[in-house]
Amino acid sequence: MLHKTYYKTKNYCKVKFNFKPELAETVEILGLNSDWQHSIIMSKKKDGSFSAEVNLPKDSTHEFKYLINNAQWVNDPEADAEVPNIFGGSNSVVSL
Q: Which residues contact 58 (CB under 8 A, 6 or more apart)?
């Protein structure tokens, strides 16, 4: 789930990512701000879900994917959209 908080006086939006994969020990977000090299580590909650908050520029679109257990790439089923990627799959999209 993506939850967006817009601020009138700031040029960014706070986006809260919440994702609950089955049998995951670690979940990372890659691709935000076109950065596929440096991940955002999500915090694991007691209910097994993972969350992270990220400030992203307003009026922008970002592709991303979750990396589960350093092995499995997964899209967010509740993302704003999906777009094809160069590997024959797709990436999740968050639009601000």
A: 6, 11, 12, 13, 96
pLDDT > 90? residue 66: yes
The CATH number assigned to the domain holding 82 equals: 2.60.40.10
Amino acid identity at 58: K
Q: Which residue has the tokens 């257990």?
A: 69
The pTM for the full model equals: 0.93
Range of the domain at 45: 2-95
Average pLDDT over residues 67-76: 96
The domain tally of the chain equals 1
What is the DSSP code (8-state) at residue 87?
T
- Work out the angle at residue 76's Cα, subtended by the Cα atoms of residues 5 and 66, and round it to the nearest 5 degrees: 100
